[in-house]
Amino acid sequence: MALPMCGSRLLFLSCRKIHRLSPINRTICSQGSSDKYDYDLLVIGGGSGGLACAKEAAQYDKKVMVLDYVDPTPKGTKWGLGGTCVNVGCIPKKLMHQAALLGEAIDDSRKYGWQVQDDVTHSWDTLVAGVQNHVKSLNWGHRIQLKDKNVQYMNAKGSFVDNHTVKAVTAKGKEELVTAENIVLATGMRPRYPKIPGALEYGITSDDIFSLKKPPGRTLVIGGSYVALECAGFLNGLGFPTSVMVRSICLRGFDQQMARLVTDQMQSKGVEFLWHIVPQQLEQTQDDHLTMTWMDGNGVSGHLHYDTVMFAIGRDPETSSLNLDLAGVELTASGKIASKNGEQSSVPHIYALGDILQGGIELTPVAIKAGKLLAQRLFGNQTHTMDYEKVATTVFTPLEYSCVGLSEEAAIERHGEENIEVYHAFYKPVEFSVAERTAEFCYIKAICTGDGDQRILGLHISGPHAGEMMQGFAAAVKCGLTYHQLASTVGIHPTSAEEVAKLHITKRSGLDPTVTGC
Ligand code: FAD
Ligand code: NDP
Fold it and tell me: For residues 53 and 352, is the Cβ–Cβ distance under 8 A?
């Protein structure tokens, strides 16, 4: 049964009338304490941060509404409730990463005795169908959870009318005004297109790739960061000839020794890197292929031919259509919400979460934690604030590179080269032996302070399941783990994670960091 919407001023009155008539509606409409506004909390944006905040606020018996709306991509791709992570980010990406890993496992399995045919093929259609079925189940799950927690959900685009009033417009153009005592903005970011001819007409972005109707074929990915490398990694793993066009360096902001390991490993698996060139024009040929014109820093240009061109050149905050000026909310030059105090905007009862918050980190668990903590502070008399320091992250290419804390460059800049000690080791996962896989890209590096107990400033791991390996170490690093505590930890044998506890060679010593034997 569809829940009645108690959101608009108009409907709120009728909702109160229904309240006396229907026990079901009573549970929906009777919560909340604010008489002046329709809602105690209105969340604009039903993604990782917004949903977490709304659900947490509802635990305190508050009257909460979520507006979520997805503008289709230039290719017409759209999706359901849950935001980027669920629909066009972490989840479909991890599933396609897994598909690529399974391809590698097929190769390995032959060496382990499995009689696998030589002509194993992959079906893009089957993969997309499986991924999209899972995504749809998550969309449904989010709707059910909101319903169970009596959070009103409206599939509508929100924009400010004044600092307590938001206009919600549905896809069919139906408008409602919603008032709220507190408003949380969690509208996320969307992929950026370069301002070159043909980009919008013929290019796609990560918003399209996970539901692409036909196999991408020969693919050019433009960009050198998380999204570009991850998508290029799984496409190559699935057998599509894949090139990456990089204008400068890869994984800016990450430890560059680790970034090079990642790109070297991708190259060794067949990904082509086109360094130091930028896209100029994208055209469609008569036979439905694409021609990309590129240019380098010296003005030299050329043409390349592909079936699919995907832009992964960064993401823009979804703040331009919120009419923030009508509420007095200040933006930064990048279009993110300026933060005054944690997640608080320049207007005290309006908050921002997740990707659109200036100074935040564009990761799902960050948005979720910040959202929960904000709801607890607003309605639960709590005081805990979000700690944006030492957040671990993983790049899935499909080799995993995971890290927490400082890069070696950042540690040197902050502490001085003479004041840090770097422990490092190459390691060979035991399962690589029979599979005869190279271990030259499996590497661990712990960057520590140079004196005393040698507090770990940054930990970096590349190798299979590095993300799974890192999570527990990240908790320890967050708690102030020192090199001596790490070294006194007894490993679990035979695992790759035990290699972290076995680190003993310093970079300064110049000794060979290649691990031999157990
Ligand atoms: P979102 O989840 O983007 O949600 C915002 C929602 O608000 C969207 O549904 C949007 O349509 C809606 N909206 C926008 N404007 C309005 C409006 N005016 N009215 C109503 N609704 C509106 N992070 C990780 O931690 N791990 C990963 O592995 C990972 N992989 C990623 C892979 C890709 C390809 C991408 C693109 C991102 C990935 N991320 C990953 C990042 C992660 O997805 C984001 O950090 C996270 O989703 C941000 O959450 P959010 O709540 O800020 O916004
Ligand atoms: P980023 O902003 O991190 O990177 C953009 C990349 O595109 C850079 O390599 C940049 O190069 C390049 N670029 C920018 N403009 C152009 C241009 N005009 N022509 C060619 N190249 C260009 O964006 P992403 O979209 O990769 O990632 C966004 C965020 O999403 C990340 O910061 C991350 O937090 C999150 N995310 C997390 C993932 C995870 O946790 N595994 C996975 C994917 C995304 P340059 O360095 O020269 O500026």
Answer: no
